[in-house]
Amino acid sequence: MFTGIGQTSLGVLKALAPLVVLSVVFQLRVLKLPRSYVLNLIKGVAIASIGLILFLQGVRVGFLPAGEALGAAFTSISVKPFIIPIGFSLGFLTTWGEPAVRVLSDQVEKASAGSIRKNIILLIIALGVASFVALGMAKIIYGIPLTYIIIPGYGLAIGLMWLSDKTFLSIAFDAGGVATGPLAVTFLMAVALGVASAIEGRDPIVDGFGLIALIALAPILSVMILGLIYKSRLRRISLPKYQSRKE
Fold this sequence. Notes:
Blueprint: H1 5-31, H2 35-74, H3 83-96, H4 99-111, H5 118-142, H6 147-161, H7 166-178, H8 182-198, H9 204-208, H10 211-246
Helix pairs in contact: 1-2, 2-8, 3-5, 3-8, 4-5, 4-7, 5-8, 5-10, 6-10, 7-10
């Protein structure tokens, strides 16, 4: 269970070290916060470091092998299209439990003073990712080139940029980044590689990779579509008020 934990710990320390150094410099030069606050910050960094090490170690020894095994096991299904709804379910559940997605949803609700519910953002992102994971499984099964999906997808995203509300536009592109968190990158990519490796005629490099690009695109489209829905509802609410004032 602890195989390779030294490498995992070193990676976490390298990731956190620049942030700690920057915090120390700002504390000495600019902030000069009370000692109690600094002690709490040190405790928080220590707890976060331990948590990240344990989380990433669990991902390495648990999620990666499980994802590859699941991907290989799915190919034993006689009707290959059944893998597509399975991919949808895995995409939804993985995104629903992704810590970074939940943090973003909480921050959106706080920043919007509760007008945009965190559960709605979380649900929309999870559904979007689930749909594109299912599309990614279809890509592997039927050998669809990635460019046939990515180019129209980002073309649609650029088109929606001109129509969507500016608030949701910012949220959408941030959501695209947080959706590709450690659970998605490790578990779902491992599943995709397992499926591509087990299907005859599929190349794990060509067909297995590319799923993370689809996962990054999914929340951008789904959140901007949500923005269009909010925008149309606001118009429906404001239009009767405007008409009544005009009368």
